[in-house]
Structures are given as structure tokens and as C-alpha cells.
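## Example record

The block below lists the input lines for one assembly entry, exactly as stored, with component labels intact.
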Amino acid sequence: QVQLVESGGGVVQPGRSLRLSCAASGFTFSSYAMNWVRQAPGKGLEWVAVISYDGSDKYYADSVKGRFTVSRDNSKNTQYLQMNSLRAEDTAVYYCARETTLDNWGQGTLVTVSS
Amino acid sequence: DIQMTQSPSSLSASVGDRVTITCRASQGIRNDLGWYQQKPGKAPKRLIYITSTLQSGVPSRFSGSGSGTEFTLTISSLQPEDFATYYCLQHNVYPYTFGQGTKLEIK
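Predicted C-alpha cells for the full assembly:
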């Protein structure tokens, strides 16, 4: 069955960087686009970024454009979210989700940006 | 960006009730809309995709309809496990956007 496992979250100071990973199994990873979605504490869902199946196309929410970079390694069945210049408002649970219609989700990893 | 206006933001209902949640898009999104259920501390779970197609394993009391700019999620007879927060998502154009959510509570 499809499994997505996020990792890399933690507490980081404002202005610093963090890289999240999403390890996929149970499907042909290299055939699917992958997304990142986040949820601030007590708030709704916010789509963050998407990367095409081969990594050639990437799109971002305006709130993270220029600071976050999505990438993938199809040989490792893993996608990444490099987060630079982190702000307090980036504090959230970050989920990865499969496919352009976000059919399967991981359990999320918590990122806390605080001094 | 496309704005998704979801209503109501909260809803109090009883087991057995029929409930409807609505999402309106600020511009046409064809039928590129999904509905998600989220329970506290858990990841969202997709219920419906392409407006009206039921995700495998989701009970048939859930249904979706609409097109263009107005969409609805209907639960025909609420069960205790249905009390959760529901979100719509447009995946017609980037950036994708979610509705604000509807918290469904027990009356």
C-alpha cells in the first residue's frame, strides 16, 4: 500500500534553514507528482509546493516562493523541501501528498520556528 | 490566485442528520475539486475527487456534486465517526487552494 513518511522537522531559529524529506513506498514513485502541504497550529491547510514526476516542473505558494525549494531523488524514492530564511509564520505541520490530486498523505512532521 | 470560499465554517448536527457543505471558487475550476476529512492530530484523508468520485473505501453516505464555481459535499446520514473538519481543494491551477474548513460537531 502507499506509504509516505516525512522526517526532518524540529525547532529552528528564525532566519535559519531546514530540509524536510518524504520517503515513499508502495507505488512507482517516479511516475507521480508530489506535493507539500502545511498546517499551522489550530489553522487550516495551506498548499506549499509541487514537483512533477521527473523534477522538471515546480510550483510554489507565494508565501514561500524564493525561500523554499522542492526537489526529488527518484533513485531513493524521496522528495525534499529545502526551507531557507525561516520565519515564525512557517511554524506548521508539513505533510507530503502524492499526485496532482493529493490522493495519499503522510503523517506529517512538525516544524517550529522560534528563538 | 483562485479563492475557495467554504461554508459554513462550523456546523452542529446530530447522528442521522443530512448535512451539506459548500465551496465556491472565485473563478471556474471545471470539476477539479476534492474533499478531505481531517480528525484531530491526524493527516487529512481524501473522500472525493474530481467533484463527485468517491475514494475507494469511503462510505456511500458521502457524495459530491457541482461544477464550475459551486460545489457541495453531502453526508446523507451522519455517523459518530463523521464528526471532523472538512476541506475542499481546487487542483485546477497553481497555486492550489483549500477552503477554510468546516468543523462538524455533535449537537
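The mean pLDDT of chain B is 97. Chain B touches chain A at residues 1, 34, 36, 38, 42-46, 49-50, 55, 87, 89, 91, 94-101 (CB under 8 Å).
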